[in-house]
Amino acid sequence: MPIPRLLLILPLTLALAGQPACAQPYKWVDAQGRTHYGDRPPAEAKARPVTVPINTYTGTPVLSTGGRPAAKAAVRESLVIYTTPTCGYCNAAKAHMGRRGIPYTERDITISESNEREFRQQGGRGVPLIVAGSRTLKGYSEASLEELLKVSGY
Predict the structure, then answer these.
(1) CA neighbor of 29 nearest in space, from 11, 43, 47, 16
(2) Are residues 116 and 80 in the same domain?
């Protein structure tokens, strides 16, 4: 009995459907001074390729106390969260702090070289990276963020 053509084509179709669609992102500034990102810059634009970090931190969230004992801080320390637009864990951490009414400063490392430089100086290798004074949280889990907030006076 011959094999139907559909059964021969189906495995190839499924294999190709699983291939990621990747395009090189570019950054350019238009005539009005606005910064744009995209995979197809206008021909007249002086676009430069950009590297978009992905959520590369896959381990267990790690809270560093910066050598201080993990006691409640006398003064609330300001919070900075280093993010990328495509990071689901970043969004979860921001939503968590938003629900608690905790103020924070977000620094998107894909739109500013100085943000990326600060991120690297803080020991960042994957996002989110949350910094409170000398304490850092690499990655996100609700329990780890709560611990950081607790020892930072929140």
Answers:
(1) 47
(2) yes
